[in-house]
Amino acid sequence: MTSNSSRQRFDAIAANYVASEVHAASPTISKLHELLGSEFFPVICDVACGAGHFGLSFAGKAGTIVGVDPAPTMLRAMEKLAAKRGVLIETANARAEALPFADGVFDLTLCRLAAHHFTDVAQAVGEMQRVTRIGGRVVIIDLEGPTEPAAANLNDAIERLHDPTHVRSYPVVEWLSLFKSAGLVAEQCLPDQREFPNGLSVQRWCEIGASGVGAENEIRTTLQSALPEQLLALGIRQDANEFFLSIPTVLILGGKSQ
Fold first, then answer.
1. How far from 148 is each of 46, 154, 161, 250, CA to CA, in Å?
2. Is there a domain that residue 7 lies in?
3. What is the DSSP letter of 110?
4. Could you list the residue range(s) of the whole structural domain that residue 136 is in?
5. What residues does 201 pair with on adjacent strands?
6. Cβ-Cβ contacts under 8 Å for 39 (sequence gap 6 or more)
7. Domain containing 134 — which CATH number?
8. Beta-carbon neighbour count of residue 225 at 10 Å?
9. 154 within a domain of the structure (yes/no)
10. CA 41 to CA 235: how far, in whole Å?
11. How far is CA 229 from CA 38, 165, 174, in A?
12. pTM for the model
């Protein structure tokens, strides 16, 4: 994946993300707010913010909300959504691997359902750590990659059919290593979360991603040939001729101590 191809793709489908039930709300967003309680954050940053649903969920719990994304149309979508809700925000057009901020600017730095697209995930986590103040937090919610190789390969195959800019879904152990290498202490690690517990149909999943009918049919064909244990590992169930995805994720909350 190149940063240009990713930017161009997400520029074209920004409206889909505004309306996406997967991105607008989820059990992991609710869980994070439970973990953080009533704590107020003077300045937060939503990295690879898309339409801004994650960052905007902190309205009333943050002084300044900054959205960062490489796709200008996504930033415009976030601005429109914020204006509709009466929330003042700032935006910056940039990649996660090169955040345009000084060291230690943010009290809370967030990233949800985006890191599996990053060309250099270690650099991106390092950048998120850099722009967070000492004593601040970094939170990543992203696709949880299976540890079993066949299931991992199946996951990445259907993810790339759904969205060619997908790079990789990382297992929890690799996420913990990335946080540690970046100098972040994992205060909370919640694996085996589900972004859509009741199941999102392949059809709707592909509508959100503008995958196309060809990719949608190939995803079904691929899943039909998968072993039951592989589908179970990916949180996918079949009902008649359709498959439903629960979208397994991991939530990691890391603290910056120095």
1. 31, 10, 20, 16
2. yes
3. E
4. 3-145+167-197+248-256
5. 244
6. 61
7. 3.40.50.150
8. 9
9. no
10. 34
11. 41, 27, 22
12. 0.91
Spell out the SS3 assignment of 71-92.
CHHHHHHHHHHHHHHCCCEEEE
pLDDT confidence of residue 2: 41
Per-residue pLDDT 10s for the chain (258 aa) are 345 555 565 555 556 565 566 666 689 999 999 999 999 999 999 999 999 999 999 999 999 999 999 999 999 999 999 999 999 999 999 999 999 999 999 999 999 999 999 999 999 999 999 999 999 999 999 999 999 999 999 999 999 999 999 999 999 999 999 999 999 999 999 999 999 999 999 999 999 888 999 999 999 999 999 999 999 999 999 999 999 999 999 999 999 987
Q: For the chain, what is the domain count? A: 1
* Structural domain contains residue 216: no
Tokens of 76: 């415009």
d(CA 144, CA 194): 10
Q: Count of CB atoms within 10 A of residue 132's CB? A: 27
Between the CA of residue 252 and those of 5, 35, 42, 112, 225, what are the distances in Å? Answer: 28, 11, 21, 10, 33
Give 201-234 as a DSSP string. Answer: EHHHHHHHHT--HHHHHHHHHHHHTS-HHHHHHT
| 176 belongs to a structural domain | yes
User: Hey, what are 187's tokens?
Assistant: 């205060």
Tokens of 210: 């503008």
